[in-house]
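name: query_chain
kind: protein
chains: 1
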Amino acid sequence: MNWAIRSGPRWRRGVLALVMLSVLSGAGLWIAGEQLSRPARASLGPPPADLQARTVRIPVPRPIPELATEQAPGQISAWFSPGQPGRGAVLLLHGVRSHRGQMLARARLLHEAGLGVLLIDLPAHGESSGERISFGWRESQGVAAALNFLRRELPQERLGVIGVSLGGASLLLLPPAERGPLQAVVLESVYPTIEEAVHNRLRVRIGEFLSRGLTPLLLSQLPLRLGVEPAQLRPEQALRQLDAPVLVAGGQLDTQTPSAETQRMAAAAPQLQALWLVEGAHHTDLQAFSPEAYRQKVLAFLIQRLRADAAAASSATP
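structure:
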C-alpha cells in the first residue's frame, strides 16, 4: 500500500511528461510543415544581357492564392528568349525553394544552340504569386500558363521541357489535356511519390526509424494546409500518361531521390528515350556537376527532337 501511495505522484508526473512531449512533438511537426510549405520569395531583376531575353509576367487564369476568399488570378514571372526560327523552344522548371536563376546555365546552353527558352518562377517561388508551396499540385497551374505562353509566342516551334525535381513533378501533375503536345521532356531527380520524397529527406536527417514514424504525421497536414491528398502527388503514376519522348536523369548517389526511384520513373515513361544515372552525383544540379556530359546527352536529345530539320530527318529514317 505504501509503495502504491509513493508511486502515484511519480506515475502522474510520467503521464504529464508524456503528454507534454506529445504536444511539443506535434507543435514541432506543425512548424516543420509551415516551413516546408511557406513561399520562397526572391528578387531576380533583369535577365543577363547575353541571354537576349526579356522579362515577362504571365497571367494564370485560375487563382494561385491559398485562401478560398482570394479569387484574383495569379501571375508567374519569367525570362523569355525566342531563339532562332526552326530550332525549337524549351520551358525550364526549377527545383523546390529555388527560382529561375537556378536554370540560367541551362538557358545559356540552349540559347547558344539557337533554341528559344522560357525560364519561369514556379508559383510561390521567386517573383511569382502564390501563398504556399504545394509540391507540384498548384505549381502545375503555372506550368500550364507558361506552355500556353510559348505556344502563343512561338506557334511554329516544337516544344520541350526540362523539369528539375519539383519542376518535373509540376509538369507531370498537370492533366494531359492542359499540358498539350510536347516533343521532348527531360526529368531530372523527380520524386515518384510524395510519401517517398518526405521519407527520404527525413531519413537523411533523423534516421530510418524516426522517419517512418514521422512521415505520415507530416503528410497528414497536406489536406489541411494545401487541400491536396498525398495520393494526388504521385508523379510516377502521372508519367504513365505522358505522350512525349522522355529522358530521365538522376544522381547515382542521390539519397533524396535514390537511383532505384529514378529507374522506376524511367520504367514508367511510355516513350523513354534514355536513362542517365550521373556517376558520383548526389541530389545536385546535374548540369553543373557534369556540364560536358549534360551537353552530350541532354542538349543532343533536345536538338534531335526539337529542331525542325533534325526531326524531319529522324522521321524519314526507315
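note: The radius of gyration is 22 Å.
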